[in-house]
Amino acid sequence: MIDDRARQFSARLLMPVADRLDVTPIGVTGFGLLVGLAAAGAAGQGWWFLALAGWLLNRLLDGLDGMVARSFGRQTDLGGYLDMVSDVVVYAAIPLGVASGRGDRASWMAAAVLVASFYLNIVAWLYLSALLEKRHQGASSRGQSTSVAMPGGVVEGTETILLFSVLLALPAIAPWTMVVMAAAVTLTAGLHVRSAVQLLDRSGATL
Fold this sequence. Notes:
With 207 residues, the chain is mostly helical. The protein has 7 helices and no strands.
């Protein structure tokens, strides 16, 4: 819900760093993926503080790769694609790592529900984004700096950072945190479906 403002804030914070980094954006994305998987592995071992630090570093790197690309004129479709795949992998790995670290049935069930909600939301969001790009109503027409259009929702990137941080900082309530997040993500998927009905039906074009 607050991603646009968060992106503006992170751009002011990270762009001076990005301007001085002599690295490839895809290299930053790859390193961020390794850090995110390491955070999930740390959670699986019950090393909660290390997992939280790794998660926050992963999110920092996730914001940095795009800024490096824009700063040096290296924006590519491949870079945007790999960034999205990396996000999805880490988003799935963190709840599974938490469930492994706690080792109880409630955590595994809650993690399964959360990952399933991610699956539903990704389909509802990315297919809509693809259709909007096809109809020239995508990210560029909306003034967004992302590779594809980012429809709003209850849970976006900023909310995911906060909720996963709570998940790792307070593992004792992890099942409840994951269930609450799954409900919010499912609601977000429903909002994307509603947007699709409104936007695609209004255009009158066939799919």
